[in-house]
Amino acid sequence: MTRFKTWCGMFRGFSNSILSPDELPLQKASLADLGGSDRSTNAQIIRRLFQGDERGPKRDAVLLNAAAALFVCGKTKTLAVGWELAENLIDSGKALQKLRDLAS
User: Fold this and answer.
1) How many helices (H) and strands (E) does the chain have?
2) Contacts of range 43-46, beta carbons closer than 8 Å, 24 or more positions apart
3) How far apart, in whole angstroms, are the C-alpha atoms of residue 32 and residue 55?
């Protein structure tokens, strides 16, 4: 797979690294695999994902974005660790509970 050079602005300057998709357990996907629809359908996708019923490329996209957010805000030292943390939050039900709390 292709490797990507990444640049990240941190609190004390910029850092760069090489990221290979092989470093994360990403499933191969097309744009169609990642697509949503109207807000009702998209909400159902998120509920299915947080309930553990969606384990495909949409979940991978959520995990990758969460991993990047956790890394950029300094909560994890690598994307791989961020991926694992996000995965644990979803699999433990904590993400679903937070969604329910926010919706109520």
Assistant:
1) 5, 2
2) 46/99
3) 16
Q: CB-based burial of residue 86 (10 Å sphere; 0-12 exposed, 13-18 middle, 19+ buried)? A: buried
Q: What is the pLDDT along the chain (104 residues), one digit of tens a residue?
A: 455 555 555 555 566 666 667 778 888 889 999 999 999 999 999 999 999 999 999 999 999 999 989 988 888 888 889 999 999 999 999 999 999 999 99
| Tokens coding 66 | 């969460």
This prediction has a pTM of 0.81
Distance CA 17, CA 7 (A): 7
For the chain, the structural domain boundaries read 54-104
